[in-house]
Amino acid sequence: MATALYSHPDCVLHDMGEWHPECPRRLQAIEDQLIASRIDPLLVHEDAPLVDENELLRVHRPEHIDHLRALAPVDGYAEIDADTRMNEHSWRAAMRAAGAAVAATDAVIDGRYDNAFCSVRPPGHHAEPDRAMGFCLFNNVAIAARHALDVRGLSRVAIVDFDVHHGNGTEAAFAGDRRVLMCGLFQHPFYPYSGDTPMAPNMINVPLAARTNGATMREAVDMMWIPALETFKPEMIFVSAGFDAHREDDLGGLGFVEADYEWLTMQICAIAKRYAKGRIVSCLEGGYNLSALGRSVATHIKVLTEA
Length: 307
Ligand SMILES: [Zn+2]
Fold this sequence. Notes:
Blueprint: E1 3-7, H1 10-13, H2 25-36, E2 43-47, H3 53-56, H4 62-71, E3 78-81, E4 84-86, H5 90-109, E5 115-118, H6 140-151, E6 157-161, H7 168-174, E7 180-187, E8 203-208, H8 214-232, E9 236-241, H9 258-275, E10 280-284, H10 290-306
Parallel strand pairs: 1-2, 1-5, 5-10, 6-7, 6-9, 7-8, 9-10
Antiparallel strand pairs: 3-4
Helix pairs in contact: 2-10, 5-6, 8-9, 9-10
Zinc ion (ZN) is lined by residues 163-165, 242, 244, 285-286.
């Protein structure tokens, strides 16, 4: 058994403009760092399939899917919000990103891999059931979690989100769904300005003030996430793996370093091992300083390969 890395060349073709921090080079930076740190040979590479539209419908309203499909331009850009656009490849990239998450979920549940990382874009955790926002079109992690529950018959899954931004889309999809425990930490107040008051008891939200460092984050995780996860006993863990809380990342204002992502991943692996047969599917969310992103993802994946 091994760790799988799901990606696809279509995810590199999605482009929101030269100035945009959520850029195609992010995936190249990850690939380069995995090779440089000799982690790449430990991984099994899988091409992300296009998602089946029925999978999207487990989270998103048909109007949302139809709207994005109709909006996808033949050339140039179509605006969704001030920071979110589609080019002619975005629709397929989004179908690959969600497809990666679902395929990885099947492979891990089937026991073909211990765990998997989806190196995909666009990211997903801001996408709500009926709207795209904040660089996100479809909520990849939410779609995969619903697949695990509704199609694969799991009864409890946890979603862990350590992106610097609150995963409002995932919260909107699962607030009140007792089959799901979502553990989030995020800078607050900060985009998208939600999460400080959780929408439901199955949301364990840890808002962190700007400039919070890793030591404070670890204390909060020990106090808030771990006991909730221990009580919930998830059968599988999904990770919204954003790395924009890194101290070198200018988009966020937190102070994490690679060792903090290593620690976080170890905690997730320990819970997964105890309750979930080790089953983890982790999907890339944010992370915009290319060097810090590459190093942090490499650290995260290295822990997954050692789990
Ligand atoms: Zn983010």
